[in-house]
Amino acid sequence: MSRFACHHCGASVVPPQPVCDRCDGFPIYQASAVALTNGIAQEPSVAGPPVVEGASLGEGDTPLLKLGAQTGPRHVKLEATNPTGSFKDRGSAALGSAAVAYDTDIEALVVASTGNTAASVAAYAARTELPCTVIVPAGAGSVKVAQAGAHGLELLGIDGTFSDCFALARTVAGDPGVLNATAVYSANPYVASANRVIAFELMAELATPPDWVTVPVGAGPLLGGIQAGFAELAAAGLIPETPRFCAVQARGCHPIVRAIQADEPVRSWKQPITTEVSAIADPLRGYAADGERTRQAVLASDGTAVALDDSRIAAARTRLAREHGLTVEPASAAAMGAIQATPEIAASDHVVSILTGHGLKHHTRMSPDVDVDPDPGRIRRGLLARSE
Ligand SMILES: *Cc1c(COP(=O)(O)O)cnc(C)c1O
Ligand SMILES: [Zn+2]
Predict the structure, then answer these.
(1) Which of 292, 300, 366 is nearest to 333 (CA)?
(2) What's the mean pLDDT when you consider all of the chain?
(3) Ligand nearest 114 Cα, by number?
(4) Which of 77, 78, 86, 298 has the most ligand 1 atoms within 8 A of CB, as the residue to mutate?
(5) What is the CA(217)–ligand 1 centre distance, in A?
(6) What pLDDT, in 10s, does the model give residues 49-75?
(7) What does the alpha-carbon distance between residue 351 and residue 63 come to, in Å, rounded to a whole number?
(8) Is the CB of 220 under 6 A from ligand 1?
(9) Pocket of ligand 1 contains residue 279 by CB under 6 Å
(10) 186 pocket-lining for ligand 1 (C-beta < 6 Å)
(11) Which ligand does the CA of 28 lie closest to?
């Protein structure tokens, strides 16, 4: 029997089927009531699809850090501490577990990625010894692609966007000889349900739900998963109310934010992609419905959305590094940059921002000049000046 049911109509869904037959809704893993209660109290991971040791690299259970702030409480969830440096490991571990330990037909992985999914799935494919091919846009996220390649899988670069990679992966997945669940990573029941655990981890540490959760969004299974987790906790009477969600995208490709602001269904992004923040630059060409599911999750939370210029995202990244000691990639910094750019978020509100990926994955010089001068007196004077 499937442990997955449609989040919208409740019908049972058998993975790796990505959406509900009846209403196109999003399947979510059904944890038992006992697991839910325990999930908050002691072991948040029981709220997600089971992960077996042979498919785990130690993902999840990431730190929640409080930032010193004059205003309302600000927390950041450090997803960069996952084994390959992004939250994508949560989904990879659940998917790998389904492939090796449960009664599914998953025999191989074909993945479309702009970077972090490639790096993550590649590592978990190595761990589980599943054959794996990763399709990336040529020239995308070179550090992440190198990270993926290190695990010895087949890596294909194609001349196109993430959507083109996704279409190719789906074609391969359509071959019944190789049933593959990850080609639909962005709407994969294991993946979104694994992301749901983040809500339980947050409530294991916080006394009350935050007012807001800010999330960088590509197609949005991260946001959708966390929102579903909170909704389930509220439905079970375990929290008084759910937080509002703020979806953040880069202005150079923001199909979901555009739709939320215009109050209309999500359409794919037809304009050129003019942002460097590749981890969230998903034009949704051919699968706008994935983005629409994300919009529905934002609406269900009484949430909002904001698109940020690359310069504003870069400034947020610099601030995180200089004021808080956090090295994150640009997409993650967008979650912080969103706070000030969103009028609905009050200064006194309690905000949790999901910092999705590690800064080492993105090479930009964060400090401008390195001066070669070995004079000890000058070093002392410099330290003194900065201690004032
Ligand atoms: C994948 C990714 C996102 C977006 O997540 P989705 O679930 O695809 O919307 C955000 N930040 C980083 C660093 C990512 O790798
Ligand atoms: Zn349904």
Answers:
(1) 366
(2) 87
(3) 1
(4) 86
(5) 6
(6) 889 999 999 999 999 999 976 567 899
(7) 15
(8) yes
(9) yes
(10) yes
(11) 2
Q: Which of 186, 185, 234, 189 is nearest to 12 (CA)?
A: 189
313 lines ligand 1 (CB under 6 A): no
Atom from ligand 1 closest to the CA of residue 361:
13
Write down the pLDDT at residue 110.
83
Strands 132-137 and 12-13: unpaired
The tokens describing 206, both together, are: 């916080």
Q: What are phi and psi of 330, to 5 degrees?
A: -55, -40
Predicted confidence band of residue 373 (pLDDT cuts 50, 70, 90): low
**Nearest CA-CA partner of 224 in 303, 159, 335, 143:** 303
Q: Which residue has the higher pLDDT, 99 or 252?
A: 252
How far is 21 from 26, CA to CA, in rounded Å?
Answer: 10
Other CB atoms within a 10 A radius of the CB of residue 138 amount to 11
Other C-beta atoms closer than 10 Å to the C-beta of 252 total 18
| Sign of the Cα pseudo-torsion (41, 45, 49, 54, in order) | negative
Separation between Cα atoms, residue 208 and residue 205, nearest integer Å: 9
297 lines ligand 1 (CB under 6 A): no
pLDDT at 103 over 90: no
Phi, psi of 334 (to 5 degrees): -60, -35
